[in-house]
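Reopening this one. Same input as before:
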Amino acid sequence: MSIRNILLIVGALFMIGGTAFVAKNWLDAQRAPAQVSAEAPILPEPELTYVLIAKVDIPVGTFLQETDLEWQAWPDDGISESYLIKDDFDETTLFGSVARQPIVGGDPMVLGRVVAPGERGFLAAVLKPGFRAVSIEVNETSGIGGFVFPGDRVDLILSHTIQDSTLEDRNERRASETILTNVRILAVDQVTNNDSESEPTVADTATLELTPKQAEMIAAVRGLGQLSLSLRSLAKDEEELERLVNGEDPMSEPEPESGKTYTWESDVSVLVPRPGANDLKVVIARGSQVEELDIEVVGAQ
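Same output, byte for byte:
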């Protein structure tokens, strides 16, 4: 073999070895990022910011409860300074407050939308539009022994004495009548929230939610006699449900057929005669003889 051929063979071997070396280095360079990526430590997830939001739609005048609010994760770039942050705010301080503006479910809570008990404008926020707040005096008997709480609904009964000059043996009658029905209690004394854990206490005043006409009625009857509260059931009756289905106000209770209910003392006690009871006469006919007798009817219906 000539020297020229030997040199060509040696050169070819060098070229093959160099190509293999370059290829190996290129493959190692491609594997390195994958290995580094697989061996990189797992970074902790970023902490989320939780904002207090309305869980449901909250109309104006609604007392806030625990079921009305919830915490929800919120993007950091969308947080306003007025939002209530979980680490900086205790949501229980809002329980018992009243919405002064309508709040849509899912919207962040803002302190300017609610008013807390004791703050100016609290009672005005509790009132439904067009209604008035009127307080009346109550005691252990007329206030149902302290078992009436804000949010309950009651009837108002007036007990009074009526002068009657037509009576022969007396000149006055006693009567009770229901003058208002389905009235909402706004406050008992200065307490405006219904704390289920509080014990019944005898109150001196009860604040009622009334229409302007009803407020005038209460002012007119204050001097006539004693007002008492009659507690209503929380369950809706069939008429209330029907009005609710028809889109009407379920609390706008119609008056009874007689207008308003009332009870005389003679309706309660059979010992108290009705007016005109002595004027009743009975005619007895025996053959050709007719006799007329005056009959005194006691407790007649």
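So the earlier flakiness isn't reproducible anymore. For the record, Residues 253-259 have pLDDT under 50 and may be disordered.
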